[in-house]
User: Which sequence fits this backbone?
């Protein structure tokens, strides 16, 4: 009959090998997890225009949505946009959902009705608008999709007396 010390000495190399395998797999999974964490997409307000459409005025914003992720696509649901002037809502609009591939840029023209109210605000001395976005989306990493993530963004855009953007024309929207 074998003693307890003989049995434990014979199994020690196996337990050591098993611990090393678990340790290497754990470290590899941490490295993979860190390399696949998606970055939030930057959204920029490039420019706007105030146009006359028959008798109604319309403010058209040009937005650029970038996907900085390598190998990670973004599936956006409908993006809700709201335009504020002094805490009063000027208008709302929705950009339909779309899929954005990795390292791609999407440019959206977003019209808002009631540009007359904007022009009256410019004439009365109000010099900024606040643009708020509520995009939700899912990231596609390799072959699976993540849960829905809300990315609330907003930017304040300053204007001069003629209704043109004052300062930097490429305004980045920040998280709320």
Assistant:
């Amino acid at each position: 009959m074998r003693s307890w010390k003989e049995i434990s000495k014979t199994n020690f190399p196996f337990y050591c090998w098993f611990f090393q395998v678990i340790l290497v797999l754990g470290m590899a999974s941490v490295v993979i997890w860190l390399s696949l964490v998606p970055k939030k997409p930057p959204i920029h307000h490039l420019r706007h225009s105030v146009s006359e459409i028959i008798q109604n005025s319309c403010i058209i914003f040009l937005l650029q949505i970038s996907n900085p992720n390598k190998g990670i696509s973004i599936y956006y649901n409908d993006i809700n946009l709201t335009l504020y002037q002094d805490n009063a809502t000027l208008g709302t609009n929705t950009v339909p959902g779309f899929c954005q591939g990795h390292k791609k840029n999407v440019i959206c023209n977003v019209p808002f009705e009631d540009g007359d109210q904007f022009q009256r605000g410019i004439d009365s001395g109000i010099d900024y608008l606040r643009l708020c976005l509520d995009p939700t989306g899912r990231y596609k990493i390799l072959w699976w999709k993540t849960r829905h993530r809300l990315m609330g963004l907003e930017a304040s855009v300053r204007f001069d007396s003629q209704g043109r953007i004052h300062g930097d024309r490429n305004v980045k929207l920040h998280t709320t």
